[in-house]
Amino acid sequence: MSTVEGSKILVTGASGRIGSVVTRRLRAAGAWVTALSIDDSPSLEADRVLVGDTTSQDDVAAALDGVDTVVHLAALAHRDIAPPYDVYATNVVSTFNVLAQAGALGISRAVVAGSINACGLPQNVHEVWPAYVPYDTHLPVDIADWYSLSKHQDESTARMAWRHWGIDVVTLRFPHVNSAEALLAQSRQLTDDPRGGLLEGWSYLTTEDAARAVELSLTAPTTGAHAFFLAADRTLAPYRTEDLLDAFAPQVPRTRRLVGREVPIDLTPARELIGFRAEHEIDVPTLDLPARLRPDPSPHTSPSKEH
Description:
Distance between the termini: 87 Å
Radius of gyration: 21 Å
């Protein structure tokens, strides 16, 4: 029996890629689910479906009526999906609106969709490098885009909401999340050109694992406000991680050895705080890095000849 059984849960962004899977999973586990979506979505599997905007105080108030926990997934999820003002304003106002109203109502727990982009690296407009790998929650941020700024700000909003109202908040720093089919296609792209996945650490999650992480976050015995990375244990690229780092980021310090295709992200907080380990890995064979992708060997000076 799932421990969400009997809970009354609001899911915002319920018609999205993660949200639709979350609503289905929670309802199947016995929760009574209110789905809030910006668009009408007749296929949503929820007990109550509302069309509304998470930046609207009235829409969020109506959606929160009668619920005891919140899953906030609504967001504009990319730097270039809309004009900069719209991306930033929508994301930060939505998160503040949902958490502030939930906290004021005495709702005890919320789960928020964070992002690996909270560190500022993957969508940075400059050529940047991580301070070190594996990434962890202490990684210095370098933010140069409005989407990453919004996700970084959301984590501060979560801490404020906990401190002010006492609502416990888990912010899940999702990597790229997609269906198994889409991820397999992305893996093929990374096979040809793995450099593009460097700043995300070639990380990923399936939508099923993302939804499971949400459910675990709802029932975990954590208190306070926590934000941490999630990912499958192994990368989506078929090459050994240290070979990839040697080729594309040789100057980045490594705080420990990475074994095989181990994802260069510290997943310890996800294990310890919510008991999460990805269960749906994409079946990718481990290959040797092709010669065309390997770093050029240091040139050797030919010994001079005496005449």
